[in-house]
Amino acid sequence: MGFQRTFLHLLFLAYLFLVRSLLAQQQNDPCALTDSGEIGGLCGLNGICQASGLSRNCTCPPGFSHVNSDNLSQGCRRNRSQLKNCSASGARMHKIEQIDWPENDYWSTDSTNQTACQQACIEDCFCTVVIYANLTDGEHCWKKALPLRNGAARDTRIAFVKVFDGVHDAVSPTPSKQRKEEKRKGFAVLGISLMVCSFVIVVILLSVWLCICRPKMKSLQKYHKFNPIGLKAFSYKELDAATGGFKIEIGRGAFGTVYKGTLADGRSIAVKKLDELLKKENPPDGEKEFRTELGIIGASYHKNLVLLYGFCDQGNHRILVYEYMPNGSLDSHLFKGTNDLDWELRVQIVLGIARGIFYLHEECRAHIIHCDIKPQNILLDENYCAKISDFGIAKLLGVEQTRTFSLARGTMGYMAPEWQKTMAVSVKVDVYSFGVVLLEIICCRKMLQLDVPENETMLSRWAYDCFKHGSLAKLVEQQDCRGMEVRQLERMVLVGLWCIQEDPSLRPSIKKVVQMLEGTVEIAVPPNPGSFP
Question: Where do the domains of the chain lie, and which CATH numbers do they carry?
Answer without folding.
Answer: 35-78+86-186 (3.50.4.10), 232-323 (3.30.200.20), 330-518 (1.10.510.10)
